[in-house]
């Protein structure tokens, strides 16, 4: 039997087809998870909850189960069909998003959001692995960054399309649907963004599974896919300075990023008087354009540094862009004028988005194929427990408990940006020497020597 490590990569057309469907899936995942940020007012009014309680729907309800479910799903991605795992995950979270629109209480919506988290946990660990096995090394960085564009495009579309949908349904008023009964505009909006994922789940079954590449040598000299958990744990522990600083540095970026994404539309509505659609369109357009360009810039900049001989090009790129994010991200919410705020948001969003694809690539290229799904799941576990579960709630806590004034939401946004982006920069600086060592070992792993 031919060793998978020697098999050729799929043709560019087949690889691009895989990437296109994964890209759309990632967009859908962020539309479904971020849509609530545009619906703060109507959901709070219907359920009678505070900013902090709403932040639990945005963050903890989704993120806690998302992060924990990702660990076993990441191990499955390293051992079984990634195509079936992804298709099933998309189907499940899409149905649970529709279910969110059918809820009648805070508790029901909390549980439905947990279901969305379970489904979405199965996407990225398998997707990272599929992309790296579909594209040759010289193209993989760009391919993975393109996939990660889904973060910004999905979050932006959630605001732009969500605003349009909400205004449309608000103009109609409460709908009366068979079986479901009365459906408020916010509920109809959520159901409308969740339903298309069912079709995508079917299309994903047409993806061909590529052979696994970049396999580490096991203790018995084989390159089998399945590795004991103890082997994976030892591999990470020996390189803990690299992995932990990448995980926690990314978490600092995510805490600021998710906090901003969750509360900026409400800030524009609450402090500047923009309508829901205006707030969604204004912020969403910046996320779509500046954020997407930032993701691509990060991949390009890292490639330039790599060509100049920097073995730590990925981490160096993230360090530089996290530092450049600090000033505009703090200044934007404090500007006091809506046009100046939106202007400052462009560089803030551009530089803060630059790490997204680069960090994913930094992590997987120093990791054997047999561990990539699990490493990705661990990365998601740490960054989402802190970023998604805590980020939105920390910002809300500043508003409710520190400033104790809903109109000072802008100070809360400035506070988390001023805390988390500098903290991330310090961690990435600490990571760089260890990353250079890990990069020198990449592709020459011998797990027998680490017994």
Helical content class: over 70%
**Strand fraction:** under 5%
* Rg on CA atoms, Å: 21 Å
Query: Total helix count?
Result: 19
Q: Biggest β-sheet, characterized?
A: 2 strands, antiparallel
Strand order of the largest sheet: 1-2
* Secondary-structure element series: HHHHHHHHEEHHHHHHHHHHH
CA-based shape: globular
pLDDT < 50 runs, ≥5 residues: 1-6
Structure, explained:
The chain is mainly α. It has a single domain, classed as Up-down Bundle (Growth Hormone, Chain: A), CATH 1.20.1250.20. It is 77% helix and 1% strand. It contains 19 helices and 2 strands. The chain has helices at 12-34, 40-47, 51-58, 60-79, 82-100, 106-120, 123-134, 137-172, 185-194, 197-203, 229-238, 240-272, 276-307, 313-334, 338-353, 355-364, 369-386, 388-403, 409-441; strands at residues 175-177, 181-183. Strands 1-2 form a two-stranded antiparallel ribbon. Strand 1 (175-177) and strand 2 (181-183) form a beta hairpin.
How would the blueprint of this fold be written?
Blueprint: H1 12-34, H2 40-47, H3 51-58, H4 60-79, H5 82-100, H6 106-120, H7 123-134, H8 137-172, E1 175-177, E2 181-183, H9 185-194, H10 197-203, H11 229-238, H12 240-272, H13 276-307, H14 313-334, H15 338-353, H16 355-364, H17 369-386, H18 388-403, H19 409-441
Antiparallel strand pairs: 1-2
Concise summary:
By secondary structure, the protein is mainly alpha-helical.
């Amino acid at each position: 039997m031919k060793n998978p490590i020697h098999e050729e990569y799929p043709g560019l057309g087949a690889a691009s087809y895989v990437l296109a469907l994964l890209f759309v899936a990632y967009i859908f995942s962020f539309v479904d998870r971020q849509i609530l940020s545009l619906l703060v007012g109507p959901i709070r009014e219907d359920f009678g909850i505070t900013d902090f309680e709403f932040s639990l729907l945005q963050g903890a309800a989704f993120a806690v189960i998302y992060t924990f479910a990702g660990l076993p799903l990441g191990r499955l991605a390293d051992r079984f069909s990634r195509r079936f795992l992804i298709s099933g995950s998309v189907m499940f979270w899409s149905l649970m998003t529709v279910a969110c629109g059918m809820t009648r209480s805070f508790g029901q919506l909390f549980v439905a959001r947990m279901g969305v988290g379970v489904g979405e946990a199965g996407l990225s660990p398998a997707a990272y692995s599929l992309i790296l096995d579909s594209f040759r090394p010289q193209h993989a960085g760009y391919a993975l960054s393109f996939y990660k564009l889904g973060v910004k495009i999905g979050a932006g579309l959630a605001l732009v399309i969500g605003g349009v949908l909400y205004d449309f349904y608000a103009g109609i008023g409460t709908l009366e649907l068979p079986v479901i009964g009365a459906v408020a505009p916010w509920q109809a909006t959520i159901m409308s963004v969740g339903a298309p994922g069912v079709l995508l789940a079917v299309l994903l079954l047409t993806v061909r599974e590529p052979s696994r590449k970049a396999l580490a040598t096991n203790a018995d000299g084989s390159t089998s896919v399945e590795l004991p958990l103890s082997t994976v744990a030892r591999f990470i522990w020996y390189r803990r300075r690299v992995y932990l600083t990448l995980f926690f540095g990314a978490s600092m970026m995510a805490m600021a990023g998710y906090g901003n994404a969750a509360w900026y539309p409400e800030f524009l509505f609450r402090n500047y008087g923009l309508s829901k659609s205006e707030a969604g369109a204004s912020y969403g357009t910046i996320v779509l354009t500046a954020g997407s360009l930032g993701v691509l810039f990060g991949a390009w900049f890292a490639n330039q540094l790599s060509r100049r001989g920097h073995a730590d090009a990925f981490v160096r790129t993230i360090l530089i862009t996290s530092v450049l994010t600090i000033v505009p991200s703090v200044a934007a919410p404090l500007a006091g004028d809506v046009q100046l705020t939106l202007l400052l948001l462009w560089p803030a969003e551009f530089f803060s988005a630059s790490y997204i694809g680069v960090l994913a690539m930094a992590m997987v290229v120093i990791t054997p194929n047999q561990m990539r799904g699990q490493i990705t799941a661990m990365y998601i576990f740490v960054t989402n427990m802190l970023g998604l579960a805590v980020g939105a709630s920390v910002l809300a806590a500043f508003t409710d408990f520190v400033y104790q004034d809903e109109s000072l939401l802008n100070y809360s946004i400035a506070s988390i940006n001023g805390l988390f982006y500098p903290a991330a920069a310090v961690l990435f600086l600490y990571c760089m020497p260890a990353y250079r060592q890990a990069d020198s070992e990449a592709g020459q792993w011998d797990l027998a020597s680490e017994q």
